[in-house]
Specification:
The protein has about 475 residues and is mainly β. The protein has six helices and 36 strands. Helices cover about 10% and strands about 40% of the residues. A hairpin with a 7-residue loop joins strand 6 and strand 7. The chain binds 2-acetamido-2-deoxy-beta-D-glucopyranose (NAG) (12 copies).
Length: about 475
C-alpha cells in the first residue's frame, strides 16, 4: 500500500521578513522567518520521521462515504513514521484544536517573534494562535538568545526540538516533553522531582480523532506508574516504584522481551531515579527497526514493532493479556468477552449507540436500549412498572453498586429495583442485594483469563423485549 500522504516538500519563505533568499532550506529544519504550510514537510535526517499537516483518512475497510458524512475534514500537525507504509502518528501538536478545511490555506507553523513554536491562522491583518509551545513566553528566559537564531529541528529520534542554532545544547522546548499517546525510543516517561513536571500519556479518542481520550498513564510521586480511566479516576493498573517495592519492572520486562525473537536485543528498557528525576526509558540499538510504546484507545499499553516481512505493526507486548481489563473498555451497557472477536458486544436488547464511532474504536457511547423501560411514579409516590429482568450469568459486577441492606431475599432485591425507575440492574448473592442506577460499566464475562467471576446480573428490560422469548419457552 502506498502512503496516503504523498506531499511535496514546500518550505515557503515568509515574504514579510527581511531574512530572505539567503536561507538555505534544509529538510529537517525550520528557521526563524520560515513557515511550514499544508503540503510542506520536515523530514528527519535519517528519513525515519516526518512532520507535516495531515488528515486522518478512512482505512480501506470503512467506506469513504460514511466517513465523509461525518468528518468535517479536520487537519492536524504531527510527527509520523516516514519509512513505514501504514500511516502512524507518534506526536500531534493540536490534539483538541483541529484545523478545519476552511482555514487550511491560512495555517502556518513558524517560530513566533517571541521565540515560541506556533501554529497560526494568518488572516489578512490578524494572526490567531491555534497552538503554541508556550514555553518561551517569558522574555527573561529568552533574553540571552537572539530569537532570530532560534530553529526547529526534527531529530532522527522523532523528537521535534526548538533550540538555539548556535548551540545544540540549548533546548527551549521539545515534543518528547509533551507526548500524546506514544513514547519513542530515547524519550523519557516520568517526572522531574524539582519542578514537578510530568510527561504523561493520554490515549486518543478514536482512530480518526487524536483528541484527549479516556485513559491516562503517569509516573506519580510515591505511587509509581498509575494507569487509570481519567473521567472517574478509576485506577486499573499500577506498578510501584522500585524504591518502595522489591518488584522491579525492568528485569521482569527484560526477561520477557529477551524470550521473544522479535524483541530480543531490539528493546533495552531502563529506569533512572536520582535527585532530579525519576523516569523510565528504552533504547532501540537497531537503527533500521521501527518501534514504539503506546497507550491505545481501548486502554491497553502495547509495545509495537514494525515487521518488514508482514508489512504490519506487531504488538509484541501488552500489559494486559485480557482485553477486558482496562476499565470500561467497551463502554456502557456492554459485555466484554476476552476470548471473543471482537471482544465487545452490547447487552441483549441493546444496540450500539453509534456504529460509526465503534468502527473507529471509540466505544465511549457504548450501547443503548432498543425499547424504553416502562416505569412511572404516581403523585402518591407509588412506582409501577411492567419491566422484567434478564439474567446475565458469570460476569463481574459493574462499577459502583449500591447495597440494599433491607432486601434479604432475591424477590425483595428484585422488588427494590423495580420500585425505583432509575434502577437498571440488580444482583443477589449470599443475602447480599446490590442495585445499579446509572450506566453499567465494566461487565466482563468469565473468560478464564483475568476474571473468574460467577456472579449473575439481572438486567432490567422492557417486557416487550423479553415476552417473545419467554413465550417460546
Ligand atoms: C531534501 O529532500 C529532497 C527530496 O526529498 C532531496 O532531493 C534533497 O536533496 C534534500 N535536501 C537536503 C538539503 O537534504
Ligand atoms: C486553497 O488554495 C488552493 C490553491 O491555491 C485553492 O485551490 C483552494 O480553493 C483554496 N481553498 C480555500 C478553502 O480557500
Ligand atoms: C518569568 O520567569 C521568571 C524566572 O524564571 C519567573 O520568576 C517569572 O514569574 C516568570 N514570569 C512569567 C510571566 O511567567
Ligand atoms: C539578531 O541577529 C540578527 C542576525 O544575526 C541581527 O541582524 C540582529 O541585529 C540581532 N538582534 C539583536 C537584538 O541582537
Ligand atoms: C466524561 O464525563 C463527562 C461528564 O460526565 C462526559 O460528558 C464525557 O463524555 C465523559 N468522557 C468520556 C470519555 O467518557
Ligand atoms: C534491524 O532491523 C531491520 C528492520 O526490521 C532488520 O531487517 C534487521 O535484520 C535488524 N538487524 C538486526 C541486527 O537485528
Ligand atoms: C508474520 O508473518 C509470518 C510469516 O508470514 C507469520 O508466520 C506470522 O504469524 C505473522 N505474524 C503475525 C502476528 O501475523
Ligand atoms: C462499520 O463496519 C462494518 C464492518 O466493517 C460495516 O459493515 C458497517 O457498515 C460500518 N458501519 C458504519 C456506520 O460505518
Ligand atoms: C418516594 O419514594 C422513594 C423511595 O421509595 C423515596 O426515596 C423518596 O424520598 C420518596 N419521595 C417523596 C416525594 O416522598
Ligand atoms: C474480577 O472480578 C472481581 C469481581 O467483580 C473483581 O473484584 C476483580 O477486581 C476482577 N479482577 C480483574 C483482574 O479484573
Ligand atoms: C457469590 O459470591 C461469592 C463470594 O462473595 C462467590 O464466590 C460466588 O461465586 C457467588 N455465587 C454466585 C452464584 O454468584
Ligand atoms: C430481545 O433479545 C432476545 C435475545 O436476543 C431476542 O430473542 C428478542 O427478540 C429481543 N426482543 C426484541 C423486541 O427485539
Amino acid at each position: 500500500m502506498s502512503p496516503l500522504y504523498i506531499l511535496s516538500l514546500g518550505l515557503l519563505l515568509l515574504h514579510t521578513t527581511p531574512l530572505c533568499s539567503s536561507i538555505a532550506v534544509s529538510n529537517d529544519t525550520l528557521t526563524a522567518g520560515q513557515v511550514l504550510v499544508v503540503g510542506g514537510k520536515l523530514v528527519s535526517r535519517n528519513g525515519k520521521f516526518a512532520l507535516n499537516f495531515f488528515q486522518f483518512q478512512p482505512t480501506n475497510t470503512i467506506s469513504k462515504s460514511t466517513h465523509n458524512a461525518r468528518s468535517p475534514s479536520s487537519w492536524y500537525l504531527g510527527v509520523w513514521f516516514n519509512n513505514v507504509p501504514v500511516f502512524t502518528t507518534v506526536w500531534v501538536a493540536n490534539r483538541d484544536q483541529a484545523i478545519t478545511d476552511h482555514n487550511l490555506n491560512l495555517t502556518q507553523l513558524k517560530i513566533s517573534s517571541d521565540g515560541n513554536l506556533v501554529i497560526v491562522n494568518q488572516a489578512a491583518n490578524t494572526e490567531s494562535v491555534i497552538s503554541s509551545s508556550h514555553i518561551v513566553n517569558n522574555r527573561t528566559q529568552t533574553s540571552s538568545i537572539n530569537t532570530s537564531t532560534i530553529i526547529v529541528v526534527l531529530l532522527n529520534s522523532g523528537n521535534l526540538v526548538l533550540r538555539n542554532s548556535l548551540s545544540s545544547d540549548l533546548v527551549l522546548w521539545q515534543s518528547f516533553d509533551y507526548p500524546t499517546d506514544v513514547v519513542l525510543p530515547g524519550a523519557k516517561f516520568g517526572r522531574n522531582k524539582v519542578t514537578g513536571f510530568s510527561r504523561r500519556l493520554i490515549s486518543k479518542k478514536s482512530l480518526i480523532d487524536p483528541g484527549l481520550g479516556s485513559y491516562i498513564i503517569e509516573l506519580e510521586d510515591t505511587k509509581g506508574i498509575v494507569l487509570q480511566y481519567g473521567n472517574l479516576s478509576v485506577v486499573y493498573w499500577h506498578w510501584p516504584s522500585p524504591s518502595t517495592s522489591s518488584l522491579n519492572l525492568i528485569p521482569i520486562l527484560k526477561t520477557y522481551l529477551d524470550s521473544d525473537s522479535r524483541t530480543k536485543g531490539l528493546i533495552n528498557p531502563t529506569y533512572v531515579d536520582n535527585n532530579q528525576e525519576e523516569y523510565y526509558m528504552y533504547t532501540s540499538p537497531n537503527e533500521s527497526s521501527s518501534t514504539y510504546f503506546s497507550l491505545d484507545i481501548s486502554g491497553q499499553i502495547n509495545i509495537n514493532v514494525w515487521s518488514q516481512a508482514n508489512q504490519s505493526w506487531q504488538i509484541v507486548y501488552s500489559e494486559h493479556v485480557d482485553s477486558c481489563t482496562p476499565f470500561a473498555t467497551c463502554g456502557p451497557f456492554t459485555v466484554c468477552n476476552g476470548i471473543a472477536k471482537p471482544f465487545c458486544d452490547c447487552m441483549e436488547n441493546f444496540s450500539q449507540k453509534s456504529p460509526l464511532d465503534w468502527n473507529f474504536s471509540d466505544r465511549t457511547g457504548g450501547c443503548i436500549r432498543n425499547t424504553p423501560l416502562h416505569c412511572s411514579t404516581s403523585d402518591k409516590n407509588i412506582t409501577s412498572s411492567t419491566d422484567m429482568f434478564h439474567p446475565i450469568a458469570r460476569v463481574t459486577l459493574p462499577y459502583n453498586p449500591k447495597s440494599i441492606d433491607i432486601a434479604t431475599t432475591q424477590s425483595e432485591c428484585e422488588e427494590a429495583c423495580l420500585g425505583s425507575c432509575s434502577c437498571t440492574t440488580y444482583s443477589y448473592n449470599n443475602s447480599r442485594c446490590s442495585v445499579w442506577t446509572e450506566q453499567l460499566l465494566s461487565v466482563n464475562l468469565n473468560d478464564g483469563i483475568d476474571n473468574t467471576s460467577e456472579d449473575i446480573l439481572y438486567l432490567r428490560l422492557a417486557a416487550k423485549d423479553l415476552l417473545p422469548s419467554l413465550r417460546k419457552k
